[in-house]
Design a protein that fits this description.
Length: about 170
């Protein structure tokens, strides 16, 4: 099974990898369910760099350490889980940046999952939550690169003035 999401972004293709090269600064604003990001060995977009992240997907806390295995400048970021057991089920994760012109590209996330049809059916809710999460990440990346602000945010990150202005009766 291949979990995938693709979204068109109106920005130069180089802005995508630049965002990921500064993931220590961008991870929390990329999705409201992102909790922690740490470079573990090296920094930035280079083969062999390891990083750790925590996120909630479908209400479950996930903690992962991964390593970059392939970087093609302005085109591809591919990484793998460092844990042997998880790598049996998820052999790699890829972010592709597909240029459509000087100021347009498509961002594609791909996660192949080796689970078989019965496993996919039994874990359908979990995979649907991953698909939703990937779509929200894509929507936020688009919004951040096009406007500088994400569309999906943590409720506690909204300024009090904005909450007051949106309150009924105002």
């Amino acid at each position: 099974m291949l979990l995938t999401h693709e979204i068109a972004i109106d920005a130069p293709v180089s802005t995508g990898p630049t965002f990921f090269a500064a993931m220590d600064e961008n991870y929390l604003r990329w999705h409201p369910d992102h909790l922690l990001f740490e470079w573990r060995q090296g920094r930035g977009l280079e083969t062999g760099v390891r990083f750790y992240f925590e996120e909630r997907i479908g209400g479950r806390l996930l903690k992962k350490e991964v390593v970059f295995i392939e970087i093609v400048p302005d085109r591809l970021i591919r990484f793998v889980p460092t844990g042997f057991l998880l790598r049996l089920f998820i052999p790699w994760i890829a972010f592709e940046f597909l240029a459509d012109g000087p100021a347009h590209f498509r961002f594609r996330q791909s996660i192949p999952v080796r689970i078989g049809p019965l496993g996919a059916r039994l874990n359908r809710r979990d995979f649907d939550a991953v698909r939703r999460h990937m779509a929200e990440e894509g929507e936020n990346l688009k919004a951040i690169l096009e406007t500088g602000r994400p569309v999906h945010v943590r409720p506690d990150s909204i300024p009090a003035e904005a909450v007051a202005e949106a309150a009924p009766g105002r």
